[in-house]
Amino acid sequence: MEIEMKMITGIKETKYVNAEELGKYIGGEVHVKASIYKIRRMKGFAFVLLRTSRMVVQSIYSAEEASFPLETLKEECCCNIRARVVLEERSRTGYELHLLDVEVLTEPEEISPIVINGKQMNTSMEKLLDYRPITLRNDKERAIFKIQNGITDGMRSFFAKEGFTEIHSPKIVFAGAEGGANIFKLDYFGKEAYLAQSPQFYKQMMVGVYERVFEIGPVFRAEKHDTSRHLNEYTGVDFEMGYIETFEEIMQMETEMLKAVMEWLRKHCAYELELLSATLPEIEEIPAIRFSEAKEWIARECNRPIRDYEDFEPEEEKLLSELVMKKFESEFVFVTHYPSKKRPFYAMDDSENPEDTLSFDLLFRGLEITTGGQRIHGYRQQMEKIIARGMDPDAFESYLMMHKHGIPPHGGMGMGLERLTSRLLMQDNVRYSTLFPRDVHRLTP
Amino acid sequence: MEIEMKMITGIKETKYVNAEELGKYIGGEVHVKASIYKIRRMKGFAFVLLRTSRMVVQSIYSAEEASFPLETLKEECCCNIRARVVLEERSRTGYELHLLDVEVLTEPEEISPIVINGKQMNTSMEKLLDYRPITLRNDKERAIFKIQNGITDGMRSFFAKEGFTEIHSPKIVFAGAEGGANIFKLDYFGKEAYLAQSPQFYKQMMVGVYERVFEIGPVFRAEKHDTSRHLNEYTGVDFEMGYIETFEEIMQMETEMLKAVMEWLRKHCAYELELLSATLPEIEEIPAIRFSEAKEWIARECNRPIRDYEDFEPEEEKLLSELVMKKFESEFVFVTHYPSKKRPFYAMDDSENPEDTLSFDLLFRGLEITTGGQRIHGYRQQMEKIIARGMDPDAFESYLMMHKHGIPPHGGMGMGLERLTSRLLMQDNVRYSTLFPRDVHRLTP
């Protein structure tokens, strides 16, 4: 008996052109898919801005050329369009479209409760986020996340070149990497489980497998901080590398990674960078200063008493960035050798001064975007530190397995993707660079 | 006053060579970093297998050449090594190393409780997973996840070419995409929240922003199934595309993606594919058969009564794959038009037969690896289906925002990365292709 089968052979040819290639069709006619972004009625014609997958393209409606009345078009209609591509030197793209035919595929049911097609989103951050599914359609809003995608593409390209393997570590875990109270609990078939605060344990284990690994994925922090730089879920960029001789190598790797990312953005996201008037930092070299010296330097230069000898106040991070910019013309600064008691139990202490760790933070334009350092690789050394901190070694049995069975000297770093993006774009709140932010007050959309 | 700053300039030159490039140094001497994978004592010399970041490299220890006694080396030591690279045609790599000097960086504290350097891991799956941090060091074990990394790299390269934007959607959500009881709950600052069962809602919203989006990230299913194909956390590969004319375009896109992945693996993972004796499927075209016809075909050909008219039994998926292989020589088969009542509320019903949906699954070597289909884009149509199902529209307010304000016709698919990997490697349990599996009984390591 005959079975009715259809053979799926792969992508078919289409009459629709890729909107990014419209410039190739100047003088000709094209079929293109687009949403109606904005209609501006003029005397005798109208400007119709078309939102395509990446660019907003200007088109002209005139009753002489078009086969349909202007009323057919509404903002946020999705359409198949036939148009002429006409040379127009005043346009940013070098061309404009003259509308000929349109097929309206879908129409909005209601008028937008918020203006999304202005030059900027003129609204509060709260509203911007409440209406995220539609406010992201604003061309500047979506440019932010195209740049964010450029950042991760640039990183991945760099990691591949440097021999890193990408891993996917579990997010439901038995114990937290950083410990403490800032951890989400969940019921896992009657057992207590947690959401991973970082892939720390797993990336270290994987150093014993591939030497160099990275992961770009969600991390969860149940912090109650409600500030412009905290999120309860964010995208962590983590790498970890084996066979290091000094913890400086980790900072060197991060420096190269940042250079590669800026290079990538220059090449692949010029459209969005221009749209957002973003200035990429020039990275030649990044100064590194010891934490204790940085504290003293800020105190002296800014005439400010030191209140906390173990951590920075946010204001101090800003002041340090300003001092470094003035003195070294660098928008980045590494701060090294944080006090041991402020760093996790797996941080390697400095043998020259065991009160300090071989660790660092990276500040960018006044904000901490990275924490990293060398980890303890010796089993006994790690056991001692766990016990000295009053922690229970049994809770870390599978973690300690790697120390017990040999792991090379290693270290790595974790970076907040949203923090990097938001400082790159000079936003005053990390939420602007978070697709759908989660904070103490926000769980939707 | 002078501030002590160190300038971090990026990656320094190193005397160590990349182990993958050892073949370039035949006849010369090299410095290389490696773990001692296996020592085989022979008469008058020893074979010492070195585990480098990707390859296991054979070296020869002889007292004449080496500056150190063999006892210096223990399995799972991490070392800096100086060696001569010698032409050796019988070796798979075309060369072998003659050990000259060694610097032992770290040593295991205990002998491994499980043999990890055999040709295979001769142990139960339970033990394999219990000791994951060390069993992954076995060269065949780690090859699995190098191939998995090749799969995602191949996908990303394909998605970039096809104009997809990568997104990072939140994993802590207010409502579940698929609904039902299979959802993990957590306490979110006193509110009830869930772990995302898929990025479904978000990828659909993002179609209104970028037209084509994808995400590769964790998804969570609180299913109590304890089978060889279920995981409670896995890596989902999701894409969603706008402006489709038929749901077949989604299958075409997936077919092209799979072709691109196989091509990528052939080019970039030949070493691992050979190590695992893996055979990649040849993909020219993939047959698509309607669900109801597939059920009848299996019943007829295999003389098997139909017990469930709305879903496949796992055995039927295997039988269908066998029938398709025999008739069409394809290791993949799309099954289309699943019954509406078995598909989620956002699935587009078939206008020709509203009992069915414009949806599909993809089976590969007897296992379902993908679910996809066209989604409802009309606001009223979506509202009607929500209400008809007795669901509360208010719970989907931000999801429905996109329908209300216009979204193009669209659809997409979700694939389990571990399932694809495990069928590619012909494993009988998806856990073998999961780095650190989570199931009803397993929360560690």
Structure description:
- 2 copies of one chain form a homodimer.
- The first copy, chain A, has helices at residues 125-130, 132-135, 139-161, 200-210, 248-268, 270-275, 291-302, 314-328, 379-388, 397-404, 417-424; strands at residues 6-8, 29-41, 46-51, 56-61, 78-87, 95-106, 165-166, 172-173, 185-188, 191-195, 212-220, 233-242, 286-290, 332-336, 349-350, 353-357, 359-364, 367-374, 410-416.
- Chain A has 445 residues and is of the alpha+beta class.
- The first copy, chain A, folds into 2 domains: 19-106, Nucleic acid-binding proteins (OB fold (Dihydrolipoamide Acetyltransferase, E2P), Beta Barrel); 139-433, BirA Bifunctional Protein, domain 2 (2-Layer Sandwich), CATH 3.30.930.
- In chain A, the strands form 4 sheets. Chain A has an 8-stranded mixed β-sheet, sandwiched between helices. The first copy, chain A, has a 5-stranded mixed β-barrel with strand order 2-3-4-6-5. Chain A has a 3-stranded antiparallel β-sheet with strand order 8-10-9, with no helix packed on it.
- In chain A, β2 (29-41) and β3 form a beta hairpin.
- In chain A, α3 (139-161) packs across α5 and α7 (291-302) crosses α8 (314-328).
- Chain A is elongated and about 85 Å long.
- The two termini of chain A are 51 Å apart.
- The model of chain A has no long low-confidence stretch (mean pLDDT 96).
- At the A-B interface, β1, α2, α3, β7 and β8 of A face β1, α2, α3, β7 and β8 of B.
- β1 of chain A pairs antiparallel with β13 (286-290) of chain B.
